[in-house]
Amino acid sequence: MSINILLVEDDDVAAEAVVRSLRKHALNVPVTLAQDGLEALEILRHQHPQQHIEKPYLVLLDLNMPRMNGFEFMQEVRADSSLHESVIFVLTTSDNEQDRARAYDKNIAGYMVKSAMGPNFNKLATLLDNYRNAVKLPGE
């Protein structure tokens, strides 16, 4: 299955590490980068001047970002009838139980702590490869 990934991450080093890991594991998936929740919403709503993403897609979302954080982004997505079915995985440095519970309350597909993803995000790449081969996403 072909899938597009919207990576919402304000840390350029972390974003590059994720992209490099996906390519290293031969996941030839288009990755669109957004610096924060506001930019991600513009991309999803096709309001961004340079970037867009097509279905099927999934979102890899950091929680701690400037302008619009991950929780605010999830609130907007779930309230938007054209975006509410978006598949969102949280990818964060926070291992806080309250953050995890709050994120799952927004119907995320999974909560991943960056430090537990293994060297070079190996576990993330493996998960996404298996996920795209096992599920049918909205828009397929």
Summarize the structure.
The chain has 140 residues and is of the alpha/beta class. It has helices spanning 12-24, 37-44, 70-79, 97-104, 122-134; strands at residues 4-8, 31-34, 57-61, 87-92, 110-113.
Description:
This protein is of the alpha/beta class. It has a domain at 23-90 and 103-114: Response regulator (Rossmann fold, 3-Layer(aba) Sandwich). Helices cover 37% and strands 17% of the residues. The chain contains five helices and five strands. The chain has helices spanning 12-24, 37-44, 70-79, 97-104, 122-134, and strands spanning 4-8, 31-34, 57-61, 87-92, 110-113. Strands 2-1-3-4-5 form a five-stranded parallel β-sheet. Helix 3 (70-79) links the parallel strand 3 and strand 4 (87-92). Helix 2 (37-44) packs parallel to helix 3.
Question: Can you tag this structure with a few keywords?
Answer:
5 helices, phosphoprotein, Rossmann fold, alpha/beta, 5 strands, 140 residues, five-stranded parallel sheet
Taken as a percent bin, the fraction of beta residues is 15-25%
CATH topology of the domain at 23-90 and 103-114: Rossmann fold
Distance between the termini: 9 Å
Sheet/helix structural class: alpha/beta
- The rough form would be described as globular
Secondary-structure element order, as H and E? EHEHEHEHEH
CATH architecture annotation of the domain at 23-90 and 103-114: 3-Layer(aba) Sandwich
CATH class of the domain at 23-90 and 103-114: Alpha Beta
Helical stretch tally: 5
Largest sheet: 5 strands, parallel
Mind telling me the CATH superfamily name of the domain at 23-90 and 103-114?
Answer: Response regulator
Strand order of the largest sheet: 2-1-3-4-5
Low-confidence stretches: none
